[in-house]
Amino acid sequence: MRHVFIRNPGAGGSRRYRDFFEELQQAAQELQISYEIYETRAPGDGRIYINRICRETAVRGERLRIYGCGGDGTLHELVNGAYGFDHVEIGMIPLGTGNDYIRNYGTAADFLNAGRQLAGVSQSSDLIHYRAEYRGAVTEGYCANMFNIGFDCNVVDMTDRVKRLPLIGGSLAYLISVCVILIKKKGANLRIEFADGSVKDGPVLLSAIANGCFCGGGVKGVPESILDDGLMDVSIVNDISRLLFLRLFPSYAAGTHLRKKHLVERGIIRYSKERSLVITANGEHLRLCTDGEITTQKRIEFKVVKHAFRFIVPADPARV
User: Fold this and answer.
1) 129-307: which CATH number, 3.40.109.10, 3.30.559.70, 2.60.200.40, 3.20.20.70?
2) How far apart are CA 269 and CA 260, in angstroms?
């Protein structure tokens, strides 16, 4: 088994980085496991390197474990580089801002334990394939956690700018961004085509197309998602008033909003499980957040790929 850790040297000064890699060295010695570290050189370099070592190890018949040191954007790069290789398992060291995908399995502390990571067991997970079009350009890829359009996407966009300000961390930056986007009440105008032929056409506050439950650093907006059921969960919140949204947001963040049956009965929330979906902007474009990465698109086709990769879950402490 080959173990490779992908890290961004630009974040090498982080205390969490130093602590983890010091612990990793000790844990690897105790477990008699060798490992490698690859430092990325530029955006997209990690995906190219991952694809190359996947091909090399496939030829040699060698099993491969790749651990991404970062957040959901890092996981996005890993699954797109390694997709299609059955001998590969993917793990995450949560050193990013959101780290939402791992919340489906455990806490950040679980995943920051180097010994438990090296002794971990992989589990099957779905991916969502997407094909996006904008001004004649086509983008295709795979999403591990979630797509967001409308309010959630706009908050992520704003958070990326706010957290660059002095003394404002990830959670505080997110809350400030929620307030700013709420004041603007910026959603999206969409045509959403479901597999059963039904259509949602018009303004929405937000739309989430999800494999996992969490976004925005722990907001459980899609609480019924299951990572390996062959379905994506589609959550749509209609274009509601600021006051109603303020009343709804605490339960939305906690993942209890679907228990408020009157919201579903009144059509404020539409929640369904789908195998495919098409979303088109009612206008020139929309902003699409894919595992935390934002692009501009016009039309997107979504389709679930069941059991598309294997994800490493840290071992029980008793096994290490």
Assistant:
1) 2.60.200.40
2) 10
Would you give per-residue pLDDT tens digits along the chain (320 residues)?
999 999 977 655 578 888 999 999 999 999 999 999 999 988 889 999 999 999 999 999 999 999 999 999 999 999 999 999 999 999 999 988 779 999 999 999 999 999 999 999 999 999 999 999 999 999 999 999 999 999 889 888 888 788 778 877 666 777 788 788 878 777 899 999 999 999 999 999 999 999 999 998 899 999 999 999 999 999 999 999 989 988 998 999 999 999 999 998 999 999 999 999 999 999 999 999 999 899 999 999 999 999 999 999 999 986 76
For the entire predicted model, the pTM comes to: 0.94
Measure the CA–CA gap between 219 and 151, rounded to whole angstroms: 13
Cα–Cα distance measured from residue 305 to residue 281, given in angstroms and rounded to the nearest whole number: 24
Pick the CATH number of 2-126+308-319 from 3.40.50.10330, 3.40.50.1820, 3.90.380.10, 1.20.1560.10: 3.40.50.10330
Q: Which residue has the tokens 């390197």?
A: 49
C-alpha–C-alpha distance, residues 278 and 104, integer Å: 26
- Cβ–Cβ < 8 Å for 46, 73: no
User: Residue ranges per domain, the chain?
Assistant: 2-126+308-319, 129-307
Angle between helices 45-60 and 72-82 (to 10 degrees): 40
Report the SS3 class of residue 152.
Answer: helix
Three-state SS annotation for 254-317: HCCHHHCHHHHHCCCEEEEEECEEEEEECCCCEEEEECCEEEEECEEEEEEEEEEEEEEECCCH
Question: What angle (nearest 5°) sits at the alpha carbon of residue 240, between those of residues 238 and 242?
Answer: 145
